[in-house]
Amino acid sequence: MNKTFFWSASLTVAVLTGWVDSAYGQSTEAPVSRALAALIAEAWEKNPELEFYRQEIAAAKTERKLTGSWNNPELSTTLGQKSVGNSGIANEGIAWSVSLSQPIEWPGRVELRKAIANHQINLAELGYSKFKSILRSRAHLYSYQLLGAQERAAAAKEVAERLQQLREVLVQREPAGLTPMLETRIIEATQLTLRRKSGEAELLAQMAMLNLNQLRGTPWTQPVIVEQTRLTFNPAPETVILLKAAQTNNFELQMRRVELEQQGFKVSLALKENYSSFTVGPYLSKDTLKEREQQIGVALSIPIPLWKGSKGSVDIATARQKQAETSLHISQREVEKQILERSTVYRTKLAEMALWQPDSVEQFRAAAAMADRHYRLGAVAIATYVELQKQYLEAIEALLATQQEALEAGQELQSLTGLEFGVATFTAKTEPKSTGKL
Fold first, then answer.
1. Residue 266 falls within a domain, yes or no?
2. CATH code where residue 402 lies
3. Which pLDDT score is estimated for 24?
4. Arithmetic mean of pLDDT, 153-162
5. 83 pairs with which residues across the strands?
6. What DSSP assignment string belongs to 94-138?
7. pLDDT-based confidence at 150, cuts 50/70/90?
8. Which of 194, 246, 294, 399 is the most exposed place for a label (fewest CB within 10 A)?
9. Is the pLDDT of residue 268 over 60?
10. Would you give the distance in Å from CA 321 to the centre of its chain?
11. Which residues is 92 bridged to in the sheet?
12. Phi, psi (degrees; rounded to nearest 5) at 88
């Protein structure tokens, strides 16, 4: 069964407006209220880093075209004065030559270079897909961090203002005696503590907003309010299924396999470097002395591997291939460990949320408000009153922290395995019929 928790703390408009004024006091722009899904989609579409990976793919494809092209032919010419002397008789004239040569690779080497370039394209495309997966996870996490920080700040400010109003009432009464004075001090101390919690939540909201605006490619100070959202968490597939899917879908493992195959081609290319490329082409040579002399033929040149052979290149390529094999093995172990860790965290958090009552936070909030009313009437002790205010805030923090940890673990599981099992279904509080996938 789906594990559902409904965050239904109905904070007042005045409290939320006060949080906006405090958190975005330095911004001249009006805050924009956005749904969680809309923020995630905007980060997915407008992130400026996506263009970097697109250009990386374009560069790899261009390199592939250049790899498959022939080397440019070489044109060479000579011009000089030629003299021939015999028995005191000297003949002089002009001598010149021109040749056109084409470097030619031995069969198989061009194909190997093309294969290496094709694998480079694959690596660029996998890097692009991997970044999009990371981008999606970050967009979900930052959006929910902003939502959670807003809820924490608004709740803390609500309770702090309640204590402030109560303190003002107690001061106006000018109570006599030790007990009323001590109760006033307890309320003041509690109010200071809650003000600190409110300030910390506002700072977290600012940091989450900056991270989210960076992903969306919007101005840093653009204020955003995330609409309240109900999350329904879905169970993850069995661990065996997750591990099996990772062997095929995990981007890191795919990249390591492509690198290993690419390195195999580099070893083959290094072996073929034993046969040096050669240059062939026609040439024409003439000189004008007493008689004209002309030569026409074909020139062939081959490097002699006397000082620098290819054995060193083969050894280096072979060592790199063994490194790639080791890297693949290590990556497999690391991915498996991460899946087991994230799966355990996700299932633990879902089991924890299954024990909660759907309206437990709302019940705490109602109890805190009721304690405030009855304390003013003298029907509730100061210890009970303060404890209820604190427990209300702690319940909100526990709820939001657990949901965030579950969301983060679930998103990482999807990225690691490539399985889109829908970590959570979200519903806007004002539109209960509208659902989507996180």
1. yes
2. 1.20.1600.10
3. 45
4. 84
5. 92
6. EEEEEEEEEEEPPTTHHHHHHHHHHHHHHHHHHHHHHHHHHHHHH
7. confident
8. 294
9. yes
10. 28
11. 83
12. 80, 0
pLDDT digits (tens, 9 = 90+) for 209-224: 888 888 888 887 778 8
Look-up of token digits 């480079």: 120
Q: What is the pLDDT of residue 29?
A: 65
Any domain includes 290: no
Q: What are residue 91's DSSP bridge partners? A: 84
Quick check: 228 and 7 in contact, CB under 8 A? yes
Q: Which of 416, 62, 383, 40 is nearest to 229 (CA)?
A: 40
In a domain, 80, yes or no: no
Alpha helices in 174-238 (DSSP H): 178-216
Find all residues with CB under 8 Å of 70, minimum gap 6, and list them: 102
155 contacts 193 by C-beta, under 8 angstroms? no
86 found inside a domain: no
Give residue 436's pLDDT band: very low, low, confident or very high (50, 70, 90). Answer: very low
Cα–Cα distances in angstroms (integers) from residue 59 to residues 52, 53, 300, 322, 425, in the given order? 11, 10, 35, 28, 39
Owning domain of residue 161: 3-71+108-275+333-437
High-pLDDT (> 90) share of the chain, %: 22
Q: How many domains does the chain have?
A: 1
Q: CB–CB of 223/32 below 8 Å?
A: yes
DSSP 382-420: HHHHHHHHHHHHHHHHHHHHHHHHHHHHHHHHHHHH---
Question: Rounded to 5, what percent of the chain is helix, strand, coil?
Answer: 65, 15, 20
Is the predicted pLDDT of residue 227 greater than 60, yes or no? yes
C-alpha to C-alpha distances, 133 to 20, 128, 248, 249, 404, nearest whole angstrom:
31, 9, 15, 12, 18
Maximum Cα–Cα distance across the chain: 141
Tell me the one-letter amino acid at 263. Answer: Q
| Residue with more model confidence, 336 or 284 | 336
What pLDDT, on the 0 to 100 scale, is given for residue 4?
40
User: 330 or 379: which carries more pLDDT confidence?
Assistant: 330
Q: Which amino acid is it at 414?
A: Q
Q: Which of 76-80, 139-143, 148-152, 413-417 is predicted most confidently?
A: 413-417
Q: Is pLDDT larger for residue 162 or for residue 428?
A: 162
Q: How far apart, in whole angstroms, are the C-alpha atoms of residue 91 and residue 97?
A: 19
